[in-house]
Amino acid sequence: VGDKAINVRRKIISEADQRAGLAVNLTNIGDFRTVTIYPPDIITQSVAAVKAIGLDFAGVDVLWDGSRAWVLETNTAPGIGGITVERYSEALKELIHRKCGITLDVTSATT
Questions:
Q1: How wide is the angle at C-alpha 21 spanned by C-alphas 8 and 14, nearest 5°?
Q2: Residue 54 has what pLDDT?
């Protein structure tokens, strides 16, 4: 959101799935884990990709090859769950306040 990374997650794929050559996507293989230490190039490239398409908010899929970040795609409606909901909510409230001058007081959302 803006110039900040809200949540950086790494996809962990089992060795068995890798050996089987199974297609990797959100629904069928692997486990996402939040990481707190990551190469700065991941954030730099992600923010640049979001800005390049004129957005303030997006999910970005990045491939890290050990020395450089490669943006694979941006997601204008990324899947949000768990702690990410709280992080995005706070960041979006700050963004709305900064851009529109509106202060939101939203403590929880229900469906």
A1: 50
A2: 93
